[in-house]
Design a protein that fits this description.
The chain is an all-alpha fold. It has five helices and no strands. The C terminus is likely disordered.
């Protein structure tokens, strides 16, 4: 019974993270006013890095939604979230912090440095929640067997037909 709840919680977390990564990528892609954000400055300085971030978030979101090799997808998400969190911390420690632009410039209302720092702190709390969801996927998702099938009664898992187990 607990295993089924773990599986369902991990699947829901995986799907939620997939949607969040795709939404963040699309909001960056379609938001032309991101120049006043950390992401916008990075994308302006190196458009290739800006597009790589958007493409990485889109691909990672799709990978998480697909359910294929969920442990690897969760590991990649954890790595990306750690990089984003580190960038936010570095920006918070800067003399003149700017909004991150993680979800487009519309979400990054920059007013005073204190308001920006508050927004970055809330962003770190958000990242911590995403990291916890990623950990849930990483540690509670069913693991593939040697042939790539999911075990623990998941789709494609179990004993192949005609064998005793």
């Amino acid at each position: 019974m607990i295993s089924r709840w773990n599986d369902k919680a991990a699947a829901a977390s995986r799907m939620a993270l997939g949607v969040v990564f795709i939404a963040a990528a699309l909001l960056k892609w379609f938001d032309p006013a991101h120049q006043s954000t950390y992401y916008g400055n990075l994308a302006h300085a190196s458009p290739m890095i800006g597009w790589a971030i958007v493409a990485g978030e889109l691909l990672l979101g799709a990978w998480l939604l697909s359910g294929f090799r969920t442990g690897l997808a969760a590991g990649a998400a954890l790595f990306m979230l750690a990089i984003f969190s580190g960038a936010s911390i570095a920006d918070m420690l800067a003399k003149h912090p700017i909004p991150c632009g993680c979800f487009g410039a519309a979400w990054a209302a920059a007013h005073s440095p204190a308001a920006v720092e508050h927004g970055l702190a809330l962003g770190l709390i958000r990242d911590a929640v995403f990291i916890l969801l990623t950990a849930l996927v990483l540690f509670c998702c069913p693991k593939p067997d040697d042939e790539g099938r999911q075990v623990d009664g998941q789709i494609g898992g179990g004993t192949p037909a005609g064998t005793d187990g």
